[in-house]
Each structure stands twice: as C-alpha cells, then as structure tokens.
C-alpha cells in the first residue's frame, strides 16, 4: 500500500467525518485506514440503504460513494441525499469503474462534487477529500461572512444600494429601502424607473444631471426629496462612488442613502426662526433686507417689475404700551401684524423691523395709485377697534413710501428713504402717508449736518445764554430772569432754540446742553450776587427736559452746580412742560417731590396749550403757572382767550400758585393782565432776551446803584 499523503490538520477544530459507501469490504478497509491515518474520522456502509440511515443519524462532512451497488445504487442514493434539505451541502465524490462521459454527467447532474475512477490511488483519494473539505470550509466561512454582512446591512438605518449606469439598473437594495420608500427592494430591482419616478419633481432635474455627468472615479454627494406612494415627502442624502465594472463595460455605482428628513425639519425650523419675528411670525429685518437685495440684484429689473416699500410706524404706541403694560403691547403688535396681512395682497411681504415698526414690500405694481390705495386700506383696517383686556383700542400709523428707482443699489438705501418719508408723515400730524422725495433727503442731510455742528458747538463753546426779565406787574420791579439758550453759529449767525432744541432732544445732546444752561445760568447769578451786599431778590428760571429728569444723577448734579455757585436752591426755578408730567408719572413725581424738599421751585411752562389736566396740578408740587403767549397776544374782553387767562389766574390763586404771563408786547395787554390780578409777566414790552453784559446793565438799572457793595480800599 502506498504511503498516505501528509496533510496539515492544525486548523481543524474537530476531526471531520468521512462516510465511505462501497459494497466491496476490501475497498472499505483500504480507504478507511488511509483516511483515518490522514487525521479524519471515518464511517462505512456496504449499500445505499445503510448509508442513508448512517447519514440521518450522524451526518458526515463528506461522502465517498460507489455507484454500482446492489439494491439502491449510487445514483439513487445521491438523489435521495440531495433531496433532503438537511444534507444538500454535503459534498459527494463518486467512486466508479464507469468511465464514460454519460455517467459522469448524470452523477454531476444529481449534485455530485467529483469523480474518482477505480482502481483508485490513495493519494488521489486523499487529495480530493482534502480539497473538497477545504472547499466546504471556505464555503461555510463565506456563508458565515455573508450572513454577518447581511445582518449588518439589514440592521443599518441607511439604504445600501448598487446599480449599473447608462441605463440605470439597480442590482441591490438592503431591506431598509422599504421602510423609507415604502417600496420593496425587489420592486426597484425589477423596475429601476420606479426610483426616478419617486424623486420630487423640483429635484428630478438635479438628480438626473448627476447620473448623466458621471466620470470614473467620481464621488457624488447630494440631497433630494422623494414622494412616497402615501404622499409623504422625505429628504434623502445620497453618497455614492462611481467606478468601472470589471465584469461589464458599463459603469457601476455603489452608495448609501440617509433619511435626513428630521435634520431638514430642524434646519427648516432654525432657518424660519432666523428669518422671522418670534412675536408676530412676520418676516424680520434680516429676511426683509435679504429679499429686497435679491430683488434689486435681479437682471433687467427696471423692465421686469416695479415695486415699493412701505415703512409703517404706529402712532402713540409708547403711551399704549406704558398705560396697559408690555404684555398688552405685545398683543397689540401681534394684532397689527394680522391686520396688515388682511390689508395687503398675498404676494406682498410684511416684516416687523422691531418695536412698533413694520415694513411691506409691494411687488408687481403698475402705477403709484396702487401704492396709495394699499396705504389707505392699511389705515382703514387699523381704524377698526382692537380688543385688548376687554378694552377697544384704536391705533393709527404713519406710513413712509419709497418707490423703486435705478439709483437704489441696496435695501438699506430704500429703507433709509422710506424711514425719512415716515418721519415726514409723523410731522404732518400722523395717521397719514407720505411719498419720499429728494427734498426729504436733503432735509435729512441738513439735519445730520446740524447735529454734527451742534456736537461741535458744545466743544467749541459756541452756545451762550440770553436772559429775558420777568417783571412783577404790580410793582414793575424785577422778579427774575428766564435763561434762554442761543447758538452763535460760525456760518449761520445766531441760531434760535426753535431750530436746534428738538434736534438736541432727539439725539440726546439735550443732556450736555441742559447741563451747560444750568451751570451758566447759576454762574451768571453768582456774578451778579458778587456785586451786591444783599441777597438778590429775584430768581433764575431754566428750562428742564424730560431726558434730564429721567437721568438718575440729575438731582445730585443740580445740587453740585448750585453749591458751586454759592446759591440757594430757592433762587433757581426749573421750567417744565405739561407733556413731561404725563410720561413716567411715578418717576417724575418722585424727582419733583425731592426737588421741592431741597428748596427748588417748579414752573409749568406754556400752560393751557397741552392737556391742562387738573389731576396733575393736584399731584405734582408746582409753584408757578406760565400762561402761553398765544392767549396773551389775542386777549380782549369778551373773547375766549381773555376768559382762558382769567380761568388760569383764578385756578393759580386757588391752588396757591404764582402766575407768569408770557409774550406781553403792549401796554393794553399789560393792563388786561393787571385787571385779572396776574402777578408776573415777561415779553418785548419790558425787554427782549438780553446777552449777559446787557442783562447785567439791566440788573443795575432795576436794582439801583445804591445797593452796590462798596469794595474795601
């Protein structure tokens, strides 16, 4: 007997079982010994029936099967083994003396793995046994690997796919495709056009372009939407690699598809939040500017489309907000946003810029009249009462309008001019609209220039005070002065306060300007006082703005100024307006009460021209009422102005207040005021506002040289 071939069994975790089926005992003995010596377990069977019993009891790893046997021959035995699913994968090697091709083909057709022709060589048998067992082990490893890979692919949340290109032909989809697409992998593989038909119409062109323009190698990364059979829209991210196929001339693409619908929804929500106002859900300033710039940058805009921008600012919103509270104010802004939606067209874009400012972009306009009609409609809709906290609130708005012109290159330029037009509407009485004009821009530039010059004026000491005497009407003696700010402009000459005080209020320059007026007026009083041995018997009146009162350090700063001038607080009279009493009432009342406790006197300027509410006269510590010049100029017995002056003087006496009449220009007016027991007055009849040197001479004339302090020799 030939020596057995040596095989390595180091990788065999257990001895593999070889079943030998042969009706010749000698063959069984020889083969059994050779296979056992090679390190395998062996089992034997003399015929097909016993082989089948053996296989069912202890399935072997390989079968050596003789063909020519009594009873069930090898062909039939093979057929029965392969018919049983449990044993289909056991390799069968036929051993036979039949060498014709027909029998070999028959055996292979029945599922045999190989043929060994008798008489056999032991080395050949062992080599073929080892080869087929190694092949079986490889198949098992591959099957296990495939099972693991399939398990991994089936457990992924991403779609794994493979396809041929040109034309598109899907080769593989993992099962998760059905969860995302609601279409089975088999359906896609059977009809690849289904995949294209499910792409959202707006994204189809983009995806088809990627499939057509493919190079090798090429990485593809894109996002697109699909429409499922149930109508649900989902976002997918496709990442794929295009490569050449070694088995075909066609390109192949392998990739992953991620369902990114959730991320897209979050991105959409974040984008919406970034582009919209959280209170009203209208577009915000950033989004409005973006859309306006997109419109401005479109080619051939002038021929394509005309548009306009409305800048809307609510009238009296601050009063409503302060009176009813910020919660109601927010509700009102939300309601106004809803009203604007009803008033404009669906194509128009509404935005809330912030606070109570709104803008509207009107598109596809044919003529200016359309813009004015929409503005009128907005005003009409706003006139309908809005119910807040059970109260009907009627609001109005000032609207600035700017129409598209080729000169505009950015959204900011359009918004700037619309804002200017809105302020013009405010100045014209509110609750109206104004079309922007170049004149408005010129005025705005003048205002900007004036603001800069006013800032410079404070630094260059171009501001000075004039002093208008206040006379005791009964004794015709000097009762005081009113300090009035003037501006010695290097180019314009003397600028009256009416031309710059409002600007100072608006820009905040009123704070340094007001401090200058207080400090200079007190300094002048100190100079006058230094010339007289007795305390001055008159007061200095200085106008105080709302911003000064609201400044937390105002009272302390005022005390420091008065002490620096060595004056008593009672020598200073602070003039305020009626509007100041209406805004921030609690804060204003506390400041006034503290000023009164320190000895300062308060005068209410231009009384009768504003709200003239008796309630604040009772609540606030007012010492003096000043009758506005408009009543004095037109007063005649029997006329309403005369009765108004009579009423004010009577009211002042009742409340234990002084009265000062402004704008006295004639002796007749003086006599009327005396007849009504008006205590004090000022006006051109006595003196115009006087510069410091002239005011000093006036003081000397009124007080007389006898009171001059004699300086020590």
The CATH homologous superfamily of the largest domain is termed EAL domain
Instruction: Figure out the total of helices.
Output: 28
Give unreliable regions as ranges. Answer: 1-12, 706-713
Strand order of the largest sheet: 19-20-22-23-24-25-26-27
Summing up helix and strand content along with how strands pair, one would put the structural category as alpha/beta
CATH topology of the largest domain: TIM Barrel
CATH architecture of the largest domain: Alpha-Beta Barrel
Reading off the top of the CATH hierarchy, the class of the largest domain is best stated as: Alpha Beta
Total number of distinct structural domains: 4
Write the layout of secondary structure elements.
Blueprint (H helix, E strand, L loop, with lengths): L16 E5 L3 H13 L3 E5 L2 H10 L4 E5 L7 H10 L8 E5 L4 H9 L4 E4 L4 H34 L3 E6 L4 E5 L2 H6 L3 H6 L2 H5 L3 H12 L5 E10 L5 E12 L6 E9 L1 H15 L7 E2 H12 L4 H4 L3 E7 L2 H8 L1 H18 L5 E6 L2 E6 L5 H15 L3 E3 L2 E3 L3 E7 L7 H17 L5 E3 L2 H23 L2 E10 L5 E12 L3 E3 L5 H7 L2 H21 L8 E5 L2 H5 L3 H11 L7 E5 L1 H5 L2 H14 L2 E7 L6 H6 L4 E4 L1 H5 L6 H15 L3 E4 L5 H9 L4 E2 L8 E2 H12 L10
Parallel strand pairs: 1-2, 1-3, 3-4, 4-5, 11-13, 17-18, 20-22, 22-23, 23-24, 24-25, 25-26, 26-27
Antiparallel strand pairs: 6-7, 6-10, 8-9, 9-10, 12-14, 12-17, 13-14, 15-16, 19-20, 19-27, 19-28, 20-21
In short:
Helix content is 46%, strand content 22%. By secondary structure, the protein is an alpha/beta fold. The longest helix is centred in the first third of the chain and has 34 residues, at 122-155.
């Amino acid at each position: 007997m030939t020596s057995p071939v040596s095989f390595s069994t180091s990788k065999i975790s257990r001895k593999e079982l070889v079943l030998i089926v042969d009706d010749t005992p000698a063959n069984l003995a020889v083969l059994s010994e050779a296979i056992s010596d090679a390190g395998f377990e062996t089992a034997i069977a003399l015929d097909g029936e016993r082989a089948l019993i053996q296989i069912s009891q202890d399935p072997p790893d390989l079968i050596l099967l003789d063909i020519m046997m009594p009873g069930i021959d090898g062909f039939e035995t093979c057929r029965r083994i392969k018919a049983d699913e449990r044993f289909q994968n056991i390799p069968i090697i036929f051993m036979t003396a039949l060498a014709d091709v027909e029998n070999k083909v028959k055996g292979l057709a029945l599922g045999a793995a190989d043929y060994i022709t008798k008489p056999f060589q032991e080395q050949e048998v062992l080599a073929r046994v080892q080869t087929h067992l190694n092949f079986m082990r490889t198949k098992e490893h591959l099957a296990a690997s495939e099972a693991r890979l399939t398990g991994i692919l089936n457990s992924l949340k991403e779609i794994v796919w493979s396809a041929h290109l040109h034309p598109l032909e899907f080769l593989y989809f993992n099962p998760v495709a059905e969860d995302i697409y609601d279409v089975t992998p088999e359906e896609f593989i059977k009809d690849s056009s289904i995949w294209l038909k499910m792409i959202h119409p707006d994204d189809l062109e983009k995806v088809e372009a990627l499939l057509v323009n493919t190079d090798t190698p090429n990485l593809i990364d894109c996002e697109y939407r699909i429409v499922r059979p149930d109508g649900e829209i989902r976002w997918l991210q496709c990442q794929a690699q295009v490569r050449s196929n070694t088995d075909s001339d066609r390109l192949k693409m392998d990739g992953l598809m991620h369902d990114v619908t959730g991320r897209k929804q979050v991105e959409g929500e974040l984008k919406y939040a970034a582009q919209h106002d959280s209170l009203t859900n209208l577009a915000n300033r950033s989004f409005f500017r973006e859309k306006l710039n997109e419109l401005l940058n479109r080619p051939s805009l002038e021929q394509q489309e005309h548009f306009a921008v409305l800048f809307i600012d609510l009238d009296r919103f601050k009063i409503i907000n302060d009176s009813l509270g910020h919660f109601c104010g927010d509700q009102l802004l939300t309601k106004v946003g809803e009203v604007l939606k009803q008033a404009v067209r669906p194509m128009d874009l509404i935005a809330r810029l912030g606070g109570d400012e709104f803008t509207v972009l009107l598109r596809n306009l044919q003529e200016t009249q359309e813009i004015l009609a929409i503005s009128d409609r907005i005003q009409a809709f706003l006139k309908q009462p809005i119910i807040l906290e059970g109260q009907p609130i009627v609001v109005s708005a000032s609207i600035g309008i700017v129409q598209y012109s080729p000169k505009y290159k950015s959204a900011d330029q359009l918004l700037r001019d619309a804002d200017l037009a809105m302020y013009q509407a405010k100045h014209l009485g509110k609750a109206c609209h104004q079309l922007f004009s170049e004149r408005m821009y010129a005025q705005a530039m003048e205002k900007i220039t004036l603001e800069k010059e006013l800032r410079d004026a404070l630094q260059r000491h171009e501001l000075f005070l004039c002093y208008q005497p206040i006379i005791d009407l009964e004794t015709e003696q000097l009762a005081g002065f009113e300090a009035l700010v003037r501006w010695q402009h290097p180019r314009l000459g003397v600028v009256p306060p009416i031309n710059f005080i409002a600007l100072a209020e608006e820009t905040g320059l009123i704070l340094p300007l007001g401090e200058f007026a207080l400090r200079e007026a007190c300094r002048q009083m100190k100079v006058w006082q230094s010339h007289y041995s007795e305390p001055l018997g008159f007061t200095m009146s200085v106008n105080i703005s709302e911003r000064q009162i609201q400044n937390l350090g105002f009272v302390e700063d005022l005390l420091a100024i008065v002490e620096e001038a060595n004056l008593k607080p009672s020598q200073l009279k602070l003039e305020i307006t009626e509007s100041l009493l209406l805004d921030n009432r609690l804060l204003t009342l506390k400041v006034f009460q503290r000023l009164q406790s320190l000895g300062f006197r308060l005068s209410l300027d231009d009384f009768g021209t504003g709200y003239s509410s008796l309630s604040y006269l009772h609540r606030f510590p007012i010492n003096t009422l000043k009758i506005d010049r408009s009543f004095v100029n037109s007063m005649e017995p029997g006329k309403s102005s005369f009765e108004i002056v009579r009423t004010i003087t009577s009211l002042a006496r009742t409340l234990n207040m002084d009265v000062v009449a402004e704008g006295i220009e004639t002796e007749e007016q003086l006599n009327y005021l005396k007849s009504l027991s008006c205590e004090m007055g000022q006006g051109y009849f006595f003196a115009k506002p006087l510069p410091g040197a002239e005011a000093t001479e006036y003081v000397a004339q009124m007080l007389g040289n006898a009171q001059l302090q004699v300086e020590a020799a």
